[in-house]
Amino acid sequence: MQAGGFTEPGLGRPHNEDHFGYDLPAGVAVLADGAGNRPHGEVAASLAVETVLAIARNHHGADHTWLESGGEPRKLAQLANQALLAHTESNRRHRGMGSTLALLCVAPAAVSLALVGDSPAYRLRDGQMTALGPGDAADQALGEQPRVQPDLHDLDRAAGDLFLLCSDGVSSALDDEALCALLMATQNDLAASARQIVLEARQAGGEGDASALLVRLD
């Protein structure tokens, strides 16, 4: 598994409410976007990503990814949700904050994707791009209710699969044809390719925070 990403705040915005991260040994990549029209989105997104990575990093075997070690993406999304709720209980000024979640978990023979909110994912395989959600969970957000019900995609795995997790600052600006062309053009430097995706979104008129996280399977 290889990964690389890029993010930048929206035009004229004082801060970036997108956040992403990954842990290669754990086989986990995650992207979060502060829920629109809610306060402190940058806090919510950062906490969601940090919670996911901390749990995955501390609960996988030395020679096994988190998913291979029995990790459950749906449960991990719920734990991130609980972390946001607990934070707002002890930090009243952050009440009302929320975040999307796009969580990719990799094992030797399988891939699992959990989505909460409107941050989508895409897979490129053999020149064909597949959009993966969001579905029923598109109207949900972490930190909103005691429980979340993420959209879960359990997928087979093939060497060379390329996944894109992105915020709506990218997906709302670029249609599937444009995204597929950019994924087809992805080079070995995934961070540089992610940056190009964000720049293309900007040139297409996207004004919000924009993030792209690319994951390629060995």
UniProtKB/TrEMBL annotation:
Question: Which superkingdom does the taxonomy of this entry point to?
Answer: Bacteria
The protein's matches in PROSITE patterns, at most eight in alphabetical order, are given as: PPM_2
* Limits of the PPM-type phosphatase domain: 1-217
Question: Pfam families given for it?
Answer: PP2C_2
Xref: Gene3D superfamilies: PPM-type phosphatase domain
The membrane spanning regions, by residue number, are: none
* Protein's name according to its UniProt entry: Protein serine/threonine phosphatase
Identify the taxonomic lineage of the organism of origin: Bacteria, Pseudomonadati, Pseudomonadota, Gammaproteobacteria, Chromatiales
